[in-house]
Specification:
Elements (H helix, E strand, L loop, with lengths): L10 H22 L7 H11 L2 E2 H7 L4 H13 L3 E5 L7 E5 L4 H19 L4 H22 L13
Antiparallel strand pairs: 1-3, 2-3
Helix pairs in contact: 1-5
Length: 160
Amino acid sequence: MNGEPRMEAGPLSSAIFRVARVHKALAGRLLREHGLHPGQELVMMTLWQDGPQRQVDLAETLDSDAATMTRGIARLERAGLVRRTRSTTDRRAVIVEATEESQGLKRLVGEAWAELERATRGGMSPARVEAARELLAELEANVTAVYRGDDASAGPERSG
């Protein structure tokens, strides 16, 4: 054995879990160098790209629950990277925006993500990378359908 747990009942799920775990660990290492935790870079990249937005929309865009997003935004705010303000048109809504101070991180986060992408791709050809992306999208769709209760597509194995 090569250190992998024996998961005969779920070899694909086990493989996905292992890849996700080590991928997140590497992302964490690369981001910690810049004072960020995994997931925070996604918030920042979204704000840098799309500009200020309602916190609820940011959570939806990043497929995060409200409590997790609130905690993450609070940490980023304490670090001086984002600012939260009440919407002038809807006092219930909180607007989140990247601060000027965060702009210095933009290049560093981009470099960290580029390094993560290089490490993930390894020596894979562009065709294999695209095939992997397609396979991962199919796996995501399968799991999402079952998670949402629409498991008609998750019946017996399909040929392919």
